[in-house]
């Protein structure tokens, strides 16, 4: 960068947010392995043991989102559950390292759909391992 150059504020914000997430060691590169989905194996891989509560919550949220996005029956069930609660249909999205507000957007969507997600995980008959990633009191 040359003297006198002005950086784009969106780029500066993105770098700041990514640095904060990296400090928490919760960027997508760290827990992408924990997001692989196989029928009957929704629990976290044993090699992934988050050490900070924030990391655990973000990893758990990413796990939910990944599963709901890639399992048609669960995605449809979540949409029906959301409509039953009077919420408009929304597609869950994962955060991306190149978009500074994607983690915020991901969290907003999950908060809006928290009750339907929780109910679906608690009563899951399609894949009983979904109960393993249901929210806890600490979440």
Can you tell me about this structure?
The protein is elongated. It contains six helices and no strands. The protein is mostly helical and about 140 residues long. The chain has one domain (about 10-135). The chain has helices at about 10-25, 30, 55-70, 70-85, 100-110, 115-120.
Q: Looking at the structure, what is the overall shape?
A: elongated
Residues in β-strands, percent: under 5%
Oligomer: single chain
Q: What's the SSE pattern?
A: HHHHHH
Annotation field: number of helices: 6
Radius of gyration: 17 Å
Mind describing the biggest β-sheet? none
Give the helix proportion (percent range). 40-55%
Uncertain segments of ≥5 residues (pLDDT<50)?
27-36, 44-51
Question: Given the helix and strand composition, which structural class is it?
Answer: mainly alpha
What is the number of beta strands?
0
Average pLDDT confidence is 73
Query: Span from first to last CA?
Result: 42 Å
Q: Please indicate the count of domains.
A: 1
């Amino acid at each position: 960068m040359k003297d006198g150059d002005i950086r784009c504020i969106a780029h500066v914000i993105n770098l700041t947010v990514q640095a904060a997430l990296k400090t928490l060691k919760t960027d997508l590169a760290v827990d992408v392995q924990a997001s692989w989905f196989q029928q009957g194996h929704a629990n976290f891989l044993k090699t992934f043991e988050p050490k900070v509560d924030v990391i655990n919550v973000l990893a758990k949220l990413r796990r939910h989102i990944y599963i709901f996005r890639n399992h048609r029956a669960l995605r449809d069930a979540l949409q029906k559950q959301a409509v039953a609660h009077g919420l408009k249909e929304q597609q869950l999205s994962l955060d991306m390292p190149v978009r500074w507000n994607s983690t915020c957007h991901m969290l907003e969507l999950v908060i809006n759909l928290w009750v339907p997600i929780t109910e679906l995980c608690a009563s899951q008959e399609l894949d009983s391992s979904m109960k393993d990633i249901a929210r806890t009191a600490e979440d």
